[in-house]
């Protein structure tokens, strides 16, 4: 199997597609906010038309989240300038809508009898992209661009921890959410946006009474504490809870093997940012984070597929071409302007991610004989569509039993920031 190229006809092998059909979604959640939000999610899904496909709900939420973040970025591309208050309010709204829609897509899938492994994969794929924009928007709201090292740390920490959440799933076979996890992080970021909208982004620059530091230090240190907590939790799971033979991954591989793709993204990003003679990260922070974020999203999607198909994780990928060119360019004393290669990395990484995800979704749809964004019409009281019924019988994805004996919503968000 080639490591650096798409296969001529298919990305997924026949064995991977067969394993995907047999995949059962396993999740454990101890979230503090999820039980409180269930009534809102239940009401929202009850108002959703039955013809609206779950994956369409997910992608609409993602698009709104990306658009609102891009508007914020336009006014403060490096996180230094104070963005208008309304852009922060718009980001809060976009994230809230995304969070709500992302929480009801599984409910809608069971409601319409269209649950499938594709839904889990599609949800994780959207989350991998959203993580980049959510982390970046929070940093811009706090004007963290005044401290480039902190900006780099927070954004890449979010990206790395999202990957690690799926790494521990690849090792243990179960996605786990602690008491303070993705939902709590999302609402904390919504709160940051609302504070910036009401009091102005300048609020974060004010000095704390009796302390010689700015107000934004509070959410910064809180985020660092959560980052450390999640890191320790993921590390413990990865090192001790391998469900394969001799404590290996679901694919029977070393539990440390997924560290290689992550290292090939984060380490070059750090070296390039620190060694750039043109101050590439400082001058073009948003483009830099989005460029490397798309590369990280691609390898995260490949890790999710490796978990769902119980296959070995591939280490090298075409999306790494951009970071490699930036690194080599610095090695040869920047014979090409770095900003040109940075934009190439963003464009190349984005198209590569979209191409890969589109082809994978197409192959799964053809294999399971389902539609990605459309629910087959089913008259009231009629039997479920044959293809839909067969898929539902194959997969119990998203239907974990809660403490009251009911079913909980599809819980596939795993970004810690």
From TrEMBL:
Composition bias (Low complexity) maps to 390-400
- For the protein in the UniProt heading, the enzyme class is transferase
- Biased composition, class Basic residues, residue ranges: 408-417
- A biological process (GO) annotation for this entry? phosphatidylethanolamine biosynthetic process
What GO cellular component entries does it have? endoplasmic reticulum membrane; Golgi apparatus
Q: Name one GO molecular function term.
A: ethanolaminephosphotransferase activity
Catalyzed reactions per annotation: 1,2-dioctanoyl-sn-glycerol + CDP-choline = 1,2-dioctanoyl-sn-glycero-3-phosphocholine + CMP + H(+); 1-hexadecanoyl-2-(9Z-octadecenoyl)-sn-glycerol + CDP-choline = 1-hexadecanoyl-2-(9Z-octadecenoyl)-sn-glycero-3-phosphocholine + CMP + H(+); 1-hexadecanoyl-2-(4Z,7Z,10Z,13Z,16Z,19Z-docosahexaenoyl)-sn-glycerol + CDP-choline = 1-hexadecanoyl-2-(4Z,7Z,10Z,13Z,16Z,19Z-docosahexaenoyl)-sn-glycero-3-phosphocholine + CMP + H(+); CDP-choline + a 1,2-diacyl-sn-glycerol = a 1,2-diacyl-sn-glycero-3-phosphocholine + CMP + H(+)
Q: Where is this region: Disordered?
A: 382-417
Q: What Pfam families does the annotation carry? A: CDP-OH_P_transf
Q: In which pathway does it act?
A: Phospholipid metabolism; phosphatidylcholine biosynthesis; phosphatidylcholine from phosphocholine: step 2/2
In terms of InterPro entries, this protein maps to:
CDP-OH_P_trans, CDP-OH_PTrfase_TM_dom, CDP_ALCOHOL_P_TRANSF_CS, CHOPT
Keywords from UniProt, A to Z, are:
Lipid biosynthesis, Lipid metabolism, Membrane, Phospholipid biosynthesis, Phospholipid metabolism, Transferase, Transmembrane, Transmembrane helix
**Segments passing through the bilayer:** 50-75, 150-170, 185-205, 217-235, 255-273, 285-308, 328-349
Q: Report the EC number(s), separated by commas if there are several.
A: 2.7.8.2
List locations, semicolon-separated. Answer: Membrane
The UniProt similarity line reads: Belongs to the CDP-alcohol phosphatidyltransferase class-I family.
What protein does this entry describe?
diacylglycerol cholinephosphotransferase
Source organism of this protein record: Drosophila madeirensis (Fruit fly)
Q: What is the lineage of its organism?
A: Eukaryota, Metazoa, Ecdysozoa, Arthropoda, Hexapoda
């Amino acid at each position: 199997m080639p490591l650096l190229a798409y296969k001529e006809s298919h990305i997924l092998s026949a064995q991977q597609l067969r394993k995907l059909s047999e995949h059962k979604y396993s999740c454990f959640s101890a979230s503090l906010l999820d039980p409180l939000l269930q009534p809102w999610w239940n009401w929202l899904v009850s108002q959703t038309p039955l013809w609206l496909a779950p994956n369409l709900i997910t992608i609409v939420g993602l698009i709104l989240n990306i658009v609102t973040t891009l508007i914020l970025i336009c006014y403060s591309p490096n996180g230094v300038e104070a963005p208008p208050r309304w852009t922060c309010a718009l980001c809060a709204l976009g994230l809230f809508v995304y969070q709500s829609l992302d929480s009801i897509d599984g409910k809608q899938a069971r409601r319409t009898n269209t649950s499938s492994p594709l839904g889990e994969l599609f949800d994780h794929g959207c989350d991998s992209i959203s993580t980049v924009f959510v982390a970046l928007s929070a940093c811009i709201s706090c004007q963290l661009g005044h401290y480039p090292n902190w900006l780099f740390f927070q954004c890449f920490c979010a990206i790395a921890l999202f990957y690690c959440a799926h790494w521990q799933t690849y090792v243990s076979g179960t996605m786990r959410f602690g008491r303070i996890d993705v939902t709590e992080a999302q609402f904390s970021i919504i709160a940051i946006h609302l504070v910036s909208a009401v009091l102005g982004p300048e609020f974060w620059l004010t000095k704390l009474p009796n302390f010689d530091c700015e107000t934004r230090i509070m959410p910064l240190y809180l985020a660092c504490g959560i980052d450390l907590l999640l890191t320790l939790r993921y590390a413990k799971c990865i090192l001790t809870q391998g469900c394969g033979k001799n404590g290996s991954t679901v694919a029977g591989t070393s539990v440390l093997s997924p560290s290689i793709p992550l290292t090939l993204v984060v380490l070059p990003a750090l070296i390039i940012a620190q060694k750039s003679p043109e101050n590439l990260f400082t001058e073009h922070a948003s483009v830099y984070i989005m460029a490397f974020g798309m590369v990280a999203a691609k390898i995260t999607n490949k890790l999710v597929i490796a978990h769902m198909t119980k296959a070995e994780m591939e280490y090298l990928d075409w999306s790494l071409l951009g970071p490699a060119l930036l690194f080599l360019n610095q090695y040869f004393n920047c014979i090409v302007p770095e900003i040109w290669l940075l934009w190439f990395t963003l464009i190349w990484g984005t198209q590569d991610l979209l191409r890969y995800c589109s082809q994978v979704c197409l192959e799964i749809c053809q294999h399971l004989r389902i539609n990605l964004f459309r629910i087959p019409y089913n008259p009231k009281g009629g039997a479920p569509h044959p293809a839909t019924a067969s898929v539902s019988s194959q997969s119990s994805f998203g239907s974990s039993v809660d403490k009251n004996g009911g079913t909980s919503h599809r819980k596939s968000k795993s970004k810690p920031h």
